[in-house]
Amino acid sequence: MVELAAWLASLPVGQALRRLSWLVPWLQIIHILANGVILSAVVMIDMRLWGISRSQSSIAMARRFQAWIWAGLVLLTVSGIALLMYSPRRMLTDATFQVKMAVMGVAIVATVWLLLALRPGREPGAREAGGHKLAGLLGTLTLALWVVVTLAGRGRWITLLLMR
Amino acid sequence: MLSIKELMGLIQSTDLAMAISQGRGWFPALEMIHVTATTFVFGMITIVDLRLVGLLARGSAISDLYRDVIPLTWVAFVVAALTGGLLFMSQAVAYSANIAFQLKLATLALIALNMLAFRLFVYPGIAQWDRAAAIPLRARLAGAISLAGWIAVVSCARWIAYLMI
Questions:
Q1: How many domains does chain B have?
Q2: Which residue is closest to B51 within chain A, CA to CA?
Q3: CA–centroid distance for A62 within its chain
Q4: Each residue's pLDDT tens digit, B120-159
Q5: Chain A residues closer than 8 Å to B32 by CB
């Protein structure tokens, strides 16, 4: 990890960022914003899947919010990589960061799977039982995973767990 | 008449506040819930604001988006406000003297006014420009102010820790 961090630190992107360090708070804001958008879009889709809101079918809701999820993922990744380049050693050697990356990987897989399960034509009607159950489970799982990613992004809870 | 500092001291020494500040896990747990709830609020309002400003999702109806998002935003906001209040109580003296915290509250008040103004004066006419390519200036302004405001709130919130005594 330390060698990887050293290599990343030597890249021009990281060096440029360290010269323009005022950019970093903005990158963090974009990162938090993108995280919020993803969480919100997933929750919107889940509300339909859980049957809390029946204003329209799950497919229509998913179609409406999937653009937000994709945009959020792109912004999250770009800002995340830039922030990583800024202080690679501190992040790569942090256990919480590693947990966050691992869980985020699973979260992204779950998200993509959820969107695929809800693409038009896949689900005949809003009340079709079997397909709905899978989508509902996926939706809940995706949300839970992203919440864990959010919390890991805060960095405190690993220390908390270790303290006990 | 009590001074602000004395009042904050009283709040901080209530049983509830003491339980939070002295218990092993209460403060971090409350903070995690607070951060998660505010991330939701921030995320949902951003979605509506970006739509209002015309930057994203230009095809969809704003009113649909608004109606879908607002109830959940309220739930998340209430959770955020409650946990925020509890967190504040546990270190009321320090927080009330913290510039970043004061700015955060002031900005939240401004955002609340902006949202109220939007709901009362801009939203009622929405049928005319719900899907229009050209969104009226006042709607775009409301969206921009809201977006800038929430970014300021998050910045202040992160800044608080650095200024804590």
A1: 1
A2: A68
A3: 16
A4: 888 888 878 877 777 888 888 999 999 999 999 988 888 8
A5: 151, 154, 156-157
Domain that holds residue B42: 4-163
Domain boundaries, chain A: 2-163
pLDDT digits (tens, 9 = 90+) for B85-127: 999 999 999 999 999 999 999 999 999 899 888 888 888 888 7
Residue A7 neighbours by CB under 8 Å, 6+ apart: none
Collect all residues with Cβ–Cβ distance below 8 Å to A8 and sequence separation of at least 6.
Answer: A14, A84, A85, A88, A92
Chosen for mutation from B30, B35, B47 (greatest number of chain A CBs closer than 10 Å) is B47
**Residue with tokens 């942090």, as numbered in its chain:** A94
The ipTM is: 0.78
> Quick one: which of A103, A86, A105, A101 has its CA closest to A5?
A86
Q: Residue type at B124?
A: P
Report CA A108 to chain centroid distance, whole Å: 6
Q: Which residues of A24-59 are buried (b: 16+ CB within 10 A; e: fewer)?
A: eeebbbbbbbbbbbbbbbbbbbbbbbeeebeeebbb
How many other C-beta atoms can be found within 10 angstroms of the C-beta atom of residue A164?
6
Q: Mention every residue, 6+ apart, whose C-beta is less than 8 A from residue B138.
A: B121, B122
- Rounded CA separation A36/A69 (Å): 10
Q: Give CA angle at B63 (B58, B69), nearest 5°.
A: 95
Which pTM was predicted?
Answer: 0.81
Residues 6+ positions from B24 with CB-CB distance below 8 Å? A163
Q: Which amino acid is located at A69 in the chain?
A: I
